[in-house]
Structure formats: C-alpha cells, structure tokens
Amino acid sequence: MPVSPNQGSTGGGDAVTLTGSHFTGTTTVRYGSRQATSFTVVSDTTTDTITPSGHGPVPVSVTTPGGTGTVGTFYYLPPPSFRLDPPPAGPLGGGNTVTLTGVGLYTTSEVRFGTQAAVFTVDSDGQLTVVVPAVTSAGPVGVTVRARGGIASGVTYTYLDSPSITVVTLDSGPVDGNNLVVITGTAFSYTTGVTFDGTPAISYRIASDTEIDALLPVGELGPADVSVTTLGGTTTASDAYTYLGRFAVLGGQSVTNTGLSSITGDLGVCPGVSLTGFPPGQVDGSIHNSDADAVAAHADLITTYNNAVGQIPDASIAGDIGGLTLPPGVYNAASSIALSGTLTLDAQGDRNADWIFQVGSTLTTATASHVLLTNGATARNVIWLIGSSATLGTDTDFAGRILAQTSITVNAGVTVNGQVLAIDGSVTLDTNRITRPW
C-alpha cells in the first residue's frame, strides 16, 4: 500500500509511511491542500510523515526538484463515539460481556476500562462486543475506545462488590407465602434476583443499597436459604428464613370444642380422628381430619419440638413467672411452671428476637393472666415446649406457639395469639379465640 496506514484522525498527528520512487530531495508532502506536519525521507522509495488535520478522503502528494506526484489517498475518519448498553456495572472479577454501540468503531484498536485493557470483537462500525477485565477494587471507571479516528471516552462502568446479607426481618412466616420481609445487607443496588430456597420471590423492591423488600413465594415447612443475586455476584444466607405451618390448632388424638370458639388458621387432628364442636365453633381456614396435610403437620410438630428441646438454655425459670420481664433467650424449667398476672417479653427492638420455654412438666395459667409482647416481639417467635400438658385459665390472654407432648386445655374466654398444638393427646376448647400469628 503506497499510503500506510491510509486512515487516520481528523485531528491529524498520525504516523503514515509513503512508499513509491524518486523521493530523494523531497521538499514538500501534502495531504490535500495541507502540508504534512513533518516528514522524513528514509530512502528514495520510502518517506515517513505525520499527518496534518483534515476531513474526508484527500490525495497525498510529494514534491521533489523533479516535480509533484500523487502517491495515493488518505482517508480522514471522524472520532468514534459510543455508549455502553445496560447494564453499566458488573463484578470485580470481570469476565462478563458488554456491548458498546455507536459510530466509527470499525477501526478500533484498543478498549480500556480505567487502566485495564479489554478483549473485544468488532461486530460492525456501530458495535463492539467487549469482555470486561478484572480489577481489584470496586467503584466507577472510565471506558475509552481508541480507533483510527481518535479516542472516545466519557462513558462510565461501575465495578461492584459482591452482595452480603446481614439479617432477614421477619425471619419466619407461613408456607403459603405472600408476606413481606425486609432483607438487610450490602451492595444491593444492582439486584437482579431474590430467591427463597431457590424459588424466586413473588416481587421485590430495592429500597436502598442496604435494603430489599421482598414478597415471599410459597415454600415448604422448615428453614429456607435466602439468596440475593446482583450484577456483582450472588450471596446466600443459609436457613435465614423459616416457613411455618398453617395450623392454628392441632390435636394428636382429638380436638373438642364447646361454645362459639373462633379459629383463624387451619384446624386438624392426627393420628386420631375425633374432631367435634365445629360448629358451633368457626374456622377461618381448612379442617383436616388425619388427611395428608394433618399427617405432615404432625410430623413437623414433632420435628420442631425435638429441635427446640435440644437448644442449650440461657437461663432457668421456676415457679410462677408472672410479673417477670424476660429478654430473648432459651429458658428451662425442670418441672412445672405457673403464670399469674402478666409476663412481659421484651424484644429490645429486635423483631427477629425469639424465646423458647422448655417446660419439663406442665404449664398452668391463672384466671386473666397475660403474656405481653413489647418492643417488637412477635408471637410467631415465642415457643412454649410443654413436657406433658398445658392448661390456660379462664380469660387468659396468651401469646406464643404451645407445643405440648400430651394435651392442652383452653378454658372459657381464653385468647391465644399463636398456636395450640398437642403431639400425643387432645386439645380441648371452650369459647376461645385462637389466631395463627402470621
């Protein structure tokens, strides 16, 4: 090629070699009407030049004492321009592919993200496919493209840290989902997916870089992993959420009701089949008489009971626990306990705070006794493990999930914000209001 390279920037400054004959004694080199910025006669057949500024295709001419001749044509190219197709962010480790679209990209010779050179493919004059290089620290960097027409810049790409999950609030809820939880952590701004045990959330909202609000999908009983995927990577918090059962009342051998009891949640019996008193009792949910759902709920009840019994106690309790204010923790009573007056459970501002009461024998509440939840405490996070039987006295206002090894008697006028679940024996109700707390 007599003019090499035969393309360059409109701003000039490109090194171009001319190949021909009789260059000795050259006095002038012109690109169109403009003189070359400089030239050097290397030999009678070769001259090195630096282009002046210009536009479009122009003839390249050389003047010697013998006259002026045209060597070839040089094409002035406009500077490239481009934009980065979304998403304009990705992981520190790079390796993801992005697309640059614009004009003047056909002669691209270099793409850089900050100081890091990227591998690229020229798809057309209007598009580059680029593999993002790795960096060591998060933050925005400038993207530059070098082509024959010049250097284009002014586009920003952001390298992202991997996300992290600190806490899920509330950390438990119904297996039928559709409840809202708040996921707190870091690097959430470019979130692309939220899953619970691999099932995508029904919907989610990126509230900030440190908070995601997610609507739960349907799940299976028990703990679930929570995963957040962003353009910076994926993080998983193992067993960060627990799916809880639908049942408000479950008896092992029977459930017997007297009066106008009201149950919000499912009602069931298993492995027994005796379920009486509905109506007049009302159930805002489904009734299960040793069907598949009841069998599964009974098995889950046993598992939950055994897991909670195995927790290491933080403190011991005994006698009458009325009048106490207890922070979150695992409390163990070697034998029976009573409750008269008010027991206060103080979450101290932690809505995920939980209490486990391991009662070796019986729980008995006095008339009009009360379990008070304060400072963010929730009934779903209070578990009463009763080694034999529980009896709730008349007009008691109770909170928490009662899991009794044998039987549960709920006397007249009692309100339970929680569950009443008996493993081996019966549940006896009398004009009560029992509400599953989720």
Description:
This protein has 438 residues and is mostly beta strands. The chain has one helix and 50 strands. The strands form nine sheets. Strands 28, 30, 31, 33, 34, 35, 38, 41, 44, 46, 48 and 50 form a twelve-stranded parallel beta sheet that branches. It has an eight-stranded parallel beta sheet with strand order 32-29-49-47-45-42-39-36, with no helix packed on it. A five-stranded mixed beta sheet has the order 2-9-8-4-5, with no helix packed on it. A hairpin with a 2-residue loop joins strand 17 and strand 18. It is rod-shaped, with a radius of gyration of 38 Å.
Helix/strand layout:
Layout: E1 3-4, E2 7-9, E3 15-19, E4 28-31, E5 34-35, E6 38-43, E7 46-50, E8 56-64, E9 67-77, E10 81-84, E11 89-91, E12 97-103, E13 110-113, E14 116-117, E15 119-124, E16 127-131, E17 139-147, E18 150-160, E19 164-169, E20 172-174, E21 180-186, E22 191-196, E23 199-200, E24 203-208, E25 211-215, E26 222-230, E27 233-244, E28 247-251, E29 254-258, E30 262-264, E31 266-269, E32 274-276, E33 282-284, E34 287-289, H1 292-309, E35 315-316, E36 319-320, E37 325-326, E38 329-333, E39 337-339, E40 342-346, E41 355-359, E42 363-365, E43 370-374, E44 382-386, E45 390-392, E46 397-404, E47 408-410, E48 415-422, E49 426-430, E50 433-435
Parallel strand pairs: 2-9, 11-18, 20-27, 28-31, 28-48, 29-32, 29-49, 30-33, 30-50, 31-34, 35-38, 36-39, 37-40, 38-41, 39-42, 40-43, 41-44, 42-45, 44-46, 45-47, 46-48, 47-49, 48-50
Antiparallel strand pairs: 1-3, 3-7, 4-5, 4-8, 6-7, 8-9, 10-12, 12-16, 13-14, 13-17, 15-16, 17-18, 19-21, 21-25, 22-23, 22-26, 24-25, 26-27
